[in-house]
Amino acid sequence: MVVSFPSVTGWILTIVLTLTSLKISEAEFWTRTPGDPFIVVDGVNNTIVNLVWEYSEPEDRIVSVGINRRKQGTTDETPIATRFGQGSRFTSSFTVNATLRSKYMALEPATLQLKNVKNGEEYVYTITVRYGAARGILVNWDDSVFVDVKVPPRIITLPARTTRNGIGSNLTLICEVAGDPTPNITWTREGATTNQLVNAIGSVLNLVKIQLNDAGSYRCTADNGYGVVSSLASVNIICSSHCKTTTVLLRLLQGIGWTDSLRTRGSLQFENLASNLTAAISSPYSRPENEGKRPYYINIKEFSLRSGIVQAIVDLQFSSGLIDPLQPLHVDIANGELGPFTVDTQLVVNPSTDETTTATSTSTGQPTNQVYADLTIMEDFLSEYRDLSNQVSKQLVDSFVSEMDKAYQNDDNYVRTEVTGLRTGSVIVSFTIYFKNAVIPSEGISNFEAAISDGTFGTYQVGHLTLLSPGTSTLTSTPPRSSQPTEFQCACDRTLLVIIGVLVSIIIVLILVIAWQHRKLGK
Ligand SMILES: *[C@@H]1O[C@H](CO)[C@@H](O)[C@H](O)[C@H]1NC(C)=O
Ligand SMILES: *[C@@H]1O[C@H](CO)[C@@H](O)[C@H](O)[C@H]1NC(C)=O
Ligand SMILES: *[C@@H]1O[C@H](CO)[C@@H](O)[C@H](O)[C@H]1NC(C)=O
Ligand SMILES: *[C@@H]1O[C@H](CO)[C@@H](O)[C@H](O)[C@H]1NC(C)=O
Ligand SMILES: *[C@@H]1O[C@H](CO)[C@@H](O)[C@H](O)[C@H]1NC(C)=O
Question: Using alpha carbons only, how large is the chain's radius of gyration in Å?
């Protein structure tokens, strides 16, 4: 480090003079101090932090100003900035410790600017101002401030967004958070009144021996006084028998910034909005008067944009014996509000396909024993998949079928699932679910939809599900889609060959005609 001559002399002089200086009550000198402790919040007001001191003495009496820092509880001081005042022989502006210039700037007369203060950079800053009093006596004034950096809460481990649980099973939801000070975590149930609160404190919520009454959206909230964050978990119950699924269309009128990724199930945008909407829909059913009508599951199937309005297609599964299970929802939206959402007061029950844009599934349709569907799995398509009897295909098919058996384990009506083909486009699995008794396709598929509602199926990431509604009797007897892409390619090639053949024939005929014309002319 380069230290200039006047600076060295200045330091020596300062040290000598210090020995003779007096200390006087601070209140008479300081007209402004930063206030101790000085709180800075990461991400809120930590980028430029000014510690401002002001004093009553005129500048021409100030001999020096020095600002040091030390860790709290230690005495080891590091000089940050110093300057000589007009009352000294070495007037100059502040010099900031060269190794710390990226962190600090000093402004006259006595302001220290801290840049981008992070957690872990908590220091006690001490300013010492020296001034020449009457008869050459030097007086020292100092002031200390502790800069405390707080960090707002942040959720590190989100609880599972959606789960489906068998009656009597146990479920543990975990919500791990960080922050300084350590945040308090509370769990609440959306829509519940205070006397029904979950009352769990801490990062873990245990639901033991789950009953239908436990269905709903749970929220973990982390608060440390410097910010609040929360996350939702939707707890669904597997219906083992006598359930019926109702599809409703909700129009969200305000406050949803539409982005195209809302069309994609599994995108962060979709999942965030779906969590909020699921919680809002579950709320009326958590009120004591509506508990008997609690849905087994709420599944947001799709968001779409129609005439500038965001539409949500939602499946709700209820006990089949319930009379008017949608009544609590109707009542809630009658004033145009559903939780934080502004909604159309009218709920469209069992919307027709032309009201849903992508028409991935219909709630109408003839009862059938076989439900056909395509599911996109986010995996690379391997060439072996073209042949279903191949060992590689078998592996995928077997694990798919065993996941299906699991998803339908409590459905007495379920017989089996058969994979009828694997096609490209990631991997599109065509499959047929067989039922003992005829089901409406949209109801037959509902257990499966619930199983993939978190965007996964077993170990697979899943994308689009397309319900291939049979509609006609021909489709009930034959699988709806050819599962041999090779055959399809052959057909393509044949068409191409025919076209080329025709073109070649035309050219040959033309050449012959021209040649014949030439011969005629030549004669
Ligand atoms: C930063 O924000 C916190 C919380 O709002 C407040 O207490 C503190 O005084 C602020 N600090 C500064 C330097 O503005
Ligand atoms: C500057 O700061 C460093 C710590 O980063 C310290 O070790 C050093 O002594 C300081 N230099 C001066 C001249 O005070
Ligand atoms: C659920 O938890 C309870 C209490 O901790 C325990 O007795 C029971 O065996 C658990 N049930 C299952 C299915 O794990
Ligand atoms: C956590 O909650 C307790 C009890 O309500 C309270 O005393 C404490 O200040 C809270 N802590 C934070 C960081 O908010
Ligand atoms: C979900 O709700 C929270 C408030 O509870 C809000 O901060 C967030 O922006 C909402 N997200 C979406 C995608 O609606």
Answer: 37
pLDDT tens per residue, range 237-273: 999 888 999 999 999 998 788 999 999 988 999 999 9
Residue bearing the CA closest to ligand 4, atom 14: 224
Q: Please provide the distance, in angstroms rounded to a whole number, between the alpha carbons at the two ends of the chain.
A: 107
The two three-digit tokens of residue 270, written as one number: 């979709």
pTM for this entry: 0.65
C-alpha pair distances (Å), 379 with each of 292, 390, 423, 449 = 42, 17, 11, 19
Sort strands 171-174 and 162-165 into parallel, antiparallel or unpaired. Answer: unpaired
**Cα 323 to ligand 2 centroid, rounded to whole Å:** 78
Q: How far apart are CA 479 and CA 507, in angstroms?
A: 44
For a ligand 4 pocket test, name from 184, 186, 224, 228 the mutation site with the most ligand atoms within 8 angstroms of its C-beta.
184
Q: Where are the beta strands (DSSP E) in 284-413?
A: 297-306, 309-319, 337-338, 341-343, 348-349, 368-377
CA 333 to chain centroid = 26
| pLDDT per position as a tens digit, 316-352 | 999 998 999 999 999 999 999 999 999 999 899 988 7
Which ligand lies nearest to the CA atom of residue 52 in the structure?
A: 1
Residue pair 432/420 in contact (Cβ under 8 Å)? The answer is yes
Edge-first strand listing for the sheet containing 216-223: 162-165, 228-237, 216-223, 184-189, 200-201
Pocket test for ligand 3, best of 169, 207, 208, 238 (most atoms within 8 A of CB): 208
What is the residue with the minimal CA distance to atom 1 of ligand 5? 276
- Report pLDDT digits (tens) over 85-99: 998 888 889 999 999
List of residues 6+ apart from 267 with CB closer than 8 A: 261
**Single-letter amino acid, residue 415:** V
**How crowded is residue 180: how many other Cβ atoms within 10 Å of its Cβ?**
18
Of 35, 94, 36, give the one whose Cα is nearest residue 62. 94
CA distance linking residue 366 with residue 440, whole number of Å: 6
Q: In angstroms, what CA-CA distances link 314 with 231, 250, 303, 361, 466?
A: 21, 8, 9, 11, 16
Which residues make Cβ contacts (< 8 Å) with residue 442, sequence separation at least 6?
245, 247, 315, 361, 362, 363, 364, 365, 467
Q: Which of 444, 455, 210, 430 is nearest to 315 (CA)?
A: 444
Are 145 and 51 in contact, with CB atoms under 8 Å apart? yes
| Torsion from C-alpha of 434, 438, 443, 448, nearest 10 degrees | -10
Which stretches of the chain drop beneath a pLDDT of 70? 1-27, 194-199, 353-366, 469-500, 520-523
